[in-house]
Amino acid sequence: MGDPLHDRDSAEAVLRQVYGAAVPYLASLADRPVHDPATEPLLAELSDLADGGRLPEKGVGSVAALERLLRIGTTVATHSAGPRFFHFVVGGATPAALAADWTTALLDQNAVSWTASPLATEVETIALRWLRELFGLPESYGGVLVTSATFANFTSLGVATHWWAEQHDVDVAADGLTGLPRMPVLSGGYLHASSRKALQMLGHGRDTVEVYARDRVGRVDLPAIERRLAELAGPAVLIANAGEVNAGHFDPIDTLADIAERYGAWLHVDGAFGLFAALSPRTADLVRGVERADSIACDAHKWLNVPYESGFAFVREPSRLPAAFGMPGAAYLPGPGSPLWSAEVGGSTGSRPSSARSVQPAVPAGPVDYAAHGPESSRRARSMPIWATLAAYGRDGHRAMVERQLDLAQRLARLVDEAPDLERLAEVPLCIVCFRARPPHLPAGELDDLNRRLGAALLADGRVFAGTTVYDGRVALRPAIVNWQTTEADIDLLVEVVRELLAHLALS
């Protein structure tokens, strides 16, 4: 097969191939293992189109290529879209979100600006408004869709960097960080690695965060943070964590907001999955005060159950986004003279102190060029799956999903508590249950090794997936329940498999 132009007539055939594979694959997810290591040798077929796995000089054509990819992919993939994947914090894709993601690829819009795609711009604007309303954030907040929680933290902390530099009379967008002192960043012990990575990419350094924890679990030491802010006597950034990944713990956001106001600090909330606590009356108090944050990061491909590359960031002062991420003009791109750069406003609209150079481009009343609001320029229209799932199921449907998964987490906690060879290590405020194997009469010094082997056996077995962690100095499992398809039967199977594997390990 040569020039793709000659392959135009294959479009219908290959799309039917995908549909034909998708229907049985989706129907099988509830019953198939999450992963079968025995299928991995099939991966070699991905590169054997030519001798030695080199790029083929002549392609095999779209029909043959898709046949191979679908056959191998539906067999070897880690079936994380299914209801028994409890590793990390991974949702699936609701029917509406999956179909909208296919639509996104079909339309292939560049969501860079209104000029490039009025459709993508309008869908993103609506999706962001609906997300803001879903979480009960003030209307004044603005945001942008990004690829992940890491980039949501990057975007938020990037804006915080510009705010902080203003307090030193520096326009960091124009002049960079040279000559500035180190930006103080303070957090409790629930700090996630993605925040460190964001600070690393922003040039602050991943190890510069000052962590104030009052125990090995990571609970924030509020008096220590206050003492440090008083010592600094200058601008600083506080990171509050909504939904810690080992047990689902929360920092006291409202209290940290009080502290931030008292000392003129920027408050960033990392709510990658924990922000969804706002949807249920049972858990809404966990995020009380989030509406007072200066910036918020979240991940739609976790609890919203849309496909990957769907994070988002909100900021209290939307005009700070184009100040941080607007591109210098090129002759064919928006720049000086475009709506985002045509006006300036002096000072900050929030309650934080600002310098005389606190000047940001005004956010125009018309369409937003979202490429100037975040780190990417060319952007996939990732708003479409978000719009579709919110339109399809509404506030009530997503609340019902969260409520059901809260119930499933409590069910898992009960099953663990009732099992004589398992031990729960933490309360279950949200959707993560942290527990470990603890067979009777096994010496305490051998428990960590046993649980490491149990975690490896669980992943090798493949029927269900849940990873290990270290919580309060002890090796443990930490299944997270956020998939829209997970049922009581899947929770029961998780416990059955864990105990079955544990019994085998005890005999080995």
The main β sheet shows up as: 7 strands, mixed
Q: Number of helical runs?
A: 14
Helix content: 25-40%
How large is the radius of gyration?
25 Å
Low-confidence stretches: 336-364
Average pLDDT rating: 92
Gross morphology: globular
**Structural class by secondary-structure content:** alpha/beta
Number of strands: 13
Strand order of the largest sheet: 1-7-6-5-4-2-3
Series of secondary-structure elements, N-terminal to C-terminal: HHHHEHHEHEHEHEEHEHEEHEEHEEH
Amino- and carboxy-terminal Cα gap: 55 Å
β-strand amount = 5-15%
Can you offer a commentary on this structure?
The protein is 39% helix and 10% strand. It has 508 residues and is of the alpha/beta class. It has a seven-stranded mixed β-sheet, sandwiched between helices. It has a two-stranded antiparallel ribbon with strand order 8-9. Helix 12 crosses helix 14. The radius of gyration is 25 Å and the shape is globular. It starts with 10 loop residues before the first helix and ends with a helix. About 6% of the residues have low confidence.
